Amino acid sequence: MSADDKYPAESGRRRFVKGVVGGAALAGVGATGAVSINTLTTATGAGGGPVEAMVIERVSGPAPHGMPQVPVEVDDDGYIRGIWPEIDTEEVDGVEIEIAREELGGVEYSQEWFQYCGNEAHEGFEPDYDSDNYFKSDGLTSYEWQQDEKEEDERFNVTDFEDYEEWGNDVGSSGVGKPAATTWRSEDTEDDIPVILLRSPLIEEAAEDNEWLQASTDQGFIAWVNVCTHFCCVPGYKLAPDAHRYDAEDRVYCQCHQTVYDPFSISSALYIARPRPED
To answer: Does residue 7 sit within a domain?
Structure first.
């Protein structure tokens, strides 16, 4: 790990890791194995197959890899939205399909990051789904501040997070950041896409010298699709009273099977994205 991949030693901050799993790992799959992977995961309708995604790192538990990061930006009025990749048309097995994919911060960002746990069938992850991409209050949140201040489907503004450097609840430490439970690309859909939006001084600091974080975070805001990659449960960040038993009080903790993810460690994960269903 190079010096620019982490906080300065004197800061005592957690490390932010650049991609360490990538083309070399994929190259390790033999020719026959690669053919098998593509045959099993490519279907008429929308891609799938080997994908390298930026994720919040899985640090313990049975989940196979981290949960995918959602790049964010703050608009001119201070409202926070997710970035959706540009749409392109590709030919797969003689069939033209649409796919959302673009380079962002030196990384190939695509819809395939989110194609796991049944998410691949969600309307919101169709490349051309009509969404304003803003993060909106889920209406079922366990965060007391959000219950008091936000209506269901209300957008989030930077002013909602002004106390992010001091905020705390009864779980873990105060001052590591302020979270919100949101939905994303879920307008008029049967089910919501759960996303945690977090504003943290740790993110802000790390983005100063990290190309990916400069492109995928904004003013200390980071987000991820909050669906555990093990059995597709919805984990909690700074919510579970027993999280300390797994060193997870300031991390994302899935109570179902005790998987722990670290939103302050962003890494690259190589996995097999599931294909979208045929239209």
So the answer is: no
